[in-house]
Amino acid sequence: MIPIEAFLAFAAILFAIGAYGVLVKSNTIVVLMCIELMLNAANINFIVFSAFTTDVVGQVFVIMTITVAAAEVAVGIAILLNAYKTKGTIEADGLASMRW
Amino acid sequence: MFFDIPFEVPYLLTLLLVIPLVGAILTLFMGGKREKYAKYVAGLFSGVTAVLASLLLFTADVGVYNESYTWIETIGLKMSYILQVDGLSILMVFLTGLLVFMVTLFSSKESNRPNYFFALMLAMEVGLMGVYMSADYFLFYIMWEVTLIPMYFMISWYGGPRRHYAAIKFFIYTHVASLVMLIGIFALVFQAASGGVADFSFAAVLAGSFSETFQSLVFLLLFFGFAVKMPAVPFHTWLPDAHTEAPTAGSVLLAGVMLKMGSYGIIRVCLEATPEGAAHWQSLMIAVGLLAIVYGAYACIAQKDLKKMVAFSSISHMGMVMLGIACLSEIGVEWAIFQMFAHGLITAILFMICGMAGHNIGTREIPLLGGIASKMPVFAGFMMFGFMASLGLPGLIGFWAEFGIIFSFYEYGAANSMIWVIVFCLLSLLLTAGYYLWAMQRTLFGRLTAKIDLSHIHDVSRVESIAMGAICAFILLFGFWPDAVLGFIEPYVQGLTSLGVI
Amino acid sequence: MFIEYTWLVPLIPLLCFAIVGFFGKKTPEGGAYIAIAGAALACVISVLVAYEFFTSAAYSDPGYVTAQIVWFTLPGGYTLHFGYYIDSLACLMMLFASFISTLIFVYSKGYMHEQGVKKRRYYAEVSLFLTGMLGLAVSSNFLEMFIFWEIMGLCSYLLIGFWSFNHPEGDDAADNAASAAKKAFLVTRLGDVSLMAGLFVLLYTFGNLDYANMFSPLSLALADPNMILIGSLLIFGGVIGKSAQFPLLDWLPDAMAGPTTVSALIHAATMVKAGVYLVARCFPLFTQDPVIMLFVAVIGGITAFFAATMALNNMNIKRVLAYSTLSQLGYMFLALGTGGYLMALGLKNLDHHLVIAGAAGYVAGCLHMVNHAFFKALLFLGSGSVIHAVGTEDMRLMGGLRKKMRITSLAMLLGSLSIAGFPFFSGFWSKELILETVMHASDYGTEGYIFSILWMLGVVTAFMTAFYMFRMWYMTFGGKPRHASEHCHGESPASMTAPLMVLSIFAVGFGFTILFGFDSLISIGVDHTNALVVGGGEAKGFEYFTDIFESIYTYLTVALVLIAIGIAYVLYNKREFNPAKFSGDEKSVLYTALTKRWWFPQLYNQIGWKLGYGIARGVDFVDRQIIDGTVNGLSAAVTGGGEILSKGQSGDVRRYTGVVTAGIVVLFIGILAIFWYMEGI
Lengths: 100, 502, 681
What we know:
- The complex is a heterotrimer of chains A (about 100), B (about 500) and C (about 675).
- Chain A is mostly helical.
- Chain A has three helices and no strands.
- Chain A has one domain: Orthogonal Bundle (Helix Hairpins).
- Chain B has a three-stranded mixed β-sheet.
- Chain B has about 500 residues and is mainly alpha-helical.
- Among the domains of chain C are: about 240 residues, no CATH class; about 55 residues; about 30 residues.
- Chain C has 27 helices and four strands.
- In chain C, strands 1-2 form a two-stranded antiparallel sheet. Chain C has a two-stranded antiparallel ribbon with strand order 3-4.
- In chain C, strand 1 and strand 2 form a beta hairpin.
- Chain C is globular.
- The relative contact order of chain C is 0.08.
- Chains B and C meet through helix 6, helix 12, helix 14, helix 16 and helix 17 of B and strand 1, helix 5, helix 6 and helix 26 of C.
């Protein structure tokens, strides 16, 4: 039996990679992908705790998270497409015209 | 008063709220070509309100007008729509009705978007009536805030050159104060409920029991909220600015009725609900009152703007009210209420005068004026009357208020063997005479000014003199017959005594 | 049957005020006839009331008739009334105020004839003025009295400032009038504030302010003596303001800026007499403590002397008369104070002789008040007639008018003789009686030496009075005509000279009334209930008569008066010596001090300016800079802080995420640290 700490450590590493990507990458597509990584790290935690406590609610939440993530990507990509159309770039640093 | 009307008007108190509200909505939509009829509609609605409000004076027992409906009722909260009048509020309701009507007459010449102007005025009347009639803290607070918004727009749309600054200052200053007051109200209500249903009605709060420490803390919160509105020195600086910039109608209502909300609140909430807190902070109230009367009077002497001078005189006279309340004696509270009424009438005249100086002469700067009496004799007559009433000439209503309040303060001093404290009051009486007479000497008499263009100068018009004359008549009437006013106040003050408040 | 209608006495002039004020434009002479008729009617009713009172049983016991209604009550058992209180003193005031006012109003018809529309304002205001005085005389309590007292203050303000918008553009006279009116109101207001404080003290001590109650021995005995002392002194403070006594004497000379008839009204019939009346009225109260009366006497003596000095070298005919009024008022207070002092000592030590001696002072004061009313009205109206004829108030431009204005000059001569205290003229009787009483008082009490000084001041004042009055008369009517006199257009119209003639009769002969028992009406004595009551005593006229002529000091005073008249004759009629010799060509320190009124006006201006405007400027600075500065600073701090923080809003998404992540990490570490710390415990 793999101990729970291993799963949690795996999820934490995955989350850290995602967070690192969000922070350093300037390409917004990559940023979106990194957000997906972080979400999935959370999903893994849900599943692990669900399995170890035999409570199905965790799995229900995972399905919901996946749905929301899908919707989010759809919206995110749409925004990026429009941003690319108007600004000609999807670099995060170039999209600063909405600031004060 | 002289006689009692034999019938009751159903839903009279609600009507006093609804009629101006309907009037406000109607006038609001009278833009464009219908603009010139706005004043007639406003006059009609404010006139009817004034008549209904004065009916209260002729009712033997105002207790019959008592409307109580549950408004919001959830698991833990109960807010009601309760309207009541008693000896304290009846005079204020009458004053509101009278002044709004007179001001509508007075400003009938308003030509800049008159529909909005009169709509704002009527909306203000709704709020003022609501404050004075509500017997539920939630309703009271809402109405309190309702008065702010029309006044804000009145100043920032129709005011003088620095109107935006003055309007914002007025709004934020008094709004902050009323939020502090709201905290105090919540404290009262939830403490009175002690875990049960928090009933916001006055009666429920009165029935609650509060410890002395709690009372003295909550008293401070409430007192701050009301003192800013009064306004008490040093929280007064919004007032001169607001008055200088506000249009005449706004100034009259602001000084005439809106400042009274502060002193009304102190009596209605601070004294009734937290009597021990009031006793605890009595010396604070006396200090604030004395500071206001002397400080206000001195500030008046240095003013160059006629209207700003009158604004500071309001601070000084409201300090008198504070002093009367601070005596925490039957006689003190009685005359404080009397002074609220008297000051409402007198200050209306004063601000109309100042407004007219601005309109008919073209400037309110005292150093630019001089010898105006020969050009505008009627104006000079009203000005003299107003100033004399305000400086407490016997035979006019202001004298009795000053006499009563200083006497009650003397009584307080004598009971605490420090009668010398009335020296401050006497000093302020002297200073009051000083600044009014000096202002009159410089504006009305002597050499005719050559510093301004006098070709457009014109005396008081007929409508204006009717509006001012009516108020003057009341000043004279109650000056000769103060008992007519005291008759309403006395039962209320006796009620306070039987509650053990003072 | 008439006493019940006493309230008509002040009401009729009040109605005249309303009628003239609102409809005066439509009536002939701007309402002059209405005002005259009102005053005359008030006078007639006064006579009827007085007649009925003096013939009624109430005159001897209890000495007054009073009726009042409850005006309102105050919590704590204070009751304030409204009503009338008729006793000898009230009758006296009512009679001479309404009578002299009637004459002055008649005179005004001629004097103000050319004033056009302004006449309406004039007659309305003088009617209100008369209302104030008559109401004051018949009031039944202090509060009611105070109201009429203040109404008079208002009217004096309006009337002194009558020329303050003389013609459309205004001139120096208008500025002066406006300033003088303000000064009069403010200075008397200073006194009134003190009086009001006195009312508070008395109301608190006695529970109401009714004369009938407060003056009863029972309530006086129950009251706290300290409170009576404080209250009485404060009330006298009001009198000092109203009657322009030292040190508040400065407004009255300035008040000459008003029309001459108004000056006559203020000086003779109303206003300043109200102060004398109040002291006489408060006698039962003031005599509770000799200190109060001593204070009254000292103030009176000082005023008499100081005011007389200022009149010595003044060139303005009206101002000389104004100073003489101050000086004569000083005599009245000296008389009342001295009489009251003796009486207070008598009441304290139960010495009946002293009470009777004190009554002489009371009689002297009241008699002098009435005499002064007649001769001062005469003098002012006479000077008005002169001013009307020559068009200036400067005596240096007059002279030789004796031939052109025979009636006026004769009337003025009689008035001057009377005020100077020439034997057998009315002023003589009262002035000698005053000095006699003061002399008498110097024998009593530990403060007797003060009265010796006051007596000397009084005698010197009598000398100076005779000098400056005849200086005035000779400069105006004697000698050769000077610039303005040459343009004089003769005697004034009959409506102006007729009142002069009537007043002359009284100015000459009124003093003799004490020989016919007049003094019994105005004497004060202790009745069977131990209360002080005015009137109803036995006539002592002949005793006073013999006292006066048996005293060596009387002859001294008369000699001084004659010498003074002689000096004035030599200097100003014959002009054998140039008066400038004595004044160092008008440059000596004393001369300057007198023209500058002993520098009182400067002093008051400085004090008033510093205490009033100086502090006001300071307050204004604090208000604008510190209090409002704090408020504005607070709002600036809020908006400025927002401004600074908004700089962090760079729009850089990665920086935002960095901050958010860092924040989460910090929070996380913080929570871990707390857990670690808690477990450590």
